[in-house]
Amino acid sequence: MITANASYTLEEGRKVFFESLDILCTPTVHDDSGMVRVQMDVRVDAGTVVGSAILELTYAEVDAFTGTGSTDVEVFYNQCEQAVDDYLSGITENSGVTFTIT
C-alpha cells in the first residue's frame, strides 16, 4: 500500500485530487505484451474505492527497482509499488507530495 502526505492525483493533467488516501496497487503480468499493468485503487477504507487508474509498465521499468521481501512474490510486488511511487512523484500536480510505501 502507498500513502500520501497531501492531496494528489493519479494521472498527469487530471483535475481529480484525493485527500491523503491510501493507494492499493494490484499488478497483473501480461507475458504476451511484456507489460505489467498496475491497478491503482484509492481507498477510504478496506472496501470503499473512490478512484482508480491503470499504470502500464514494461518489464524493464519494473526491473529498474530493487524489491524487498522474503519471497519472490513479495519482491515483485514491492518493485511494482516502487514503480508506482516513482510515477506518482513525477506528476507535475503532485509536486511537494511525499508518497510512502507501507
Task: Pick out its properties.
2 helices, 102 residues, alpha+beta, two-stranded antiparallel ribbon, three-stranded antiparallel beta sheet
What order do the helices and strands come in, and which of them pair?
Blueprint: E1 2-4, E2 22-30, E3 35-43, E4 49-58, H1 59-63, H2 72-89, E5 99-101
Antiparallel strand pairs: 1-5, 2-3, 3-4
Radius of gyration: 13 Å
Count of separate DSSP helical elements: 2
Number of strands: 5
Mean pLDDT across all residues, rounded?
95
Number of domains: 1
Strand order of the largest sheet: 2-3-4
Sheet with most strands: 3 strands, antiparallel
Silhouette: globular
Element-by-element helix/strand order:
EEEEHHE
Overall helicity: 10-25%
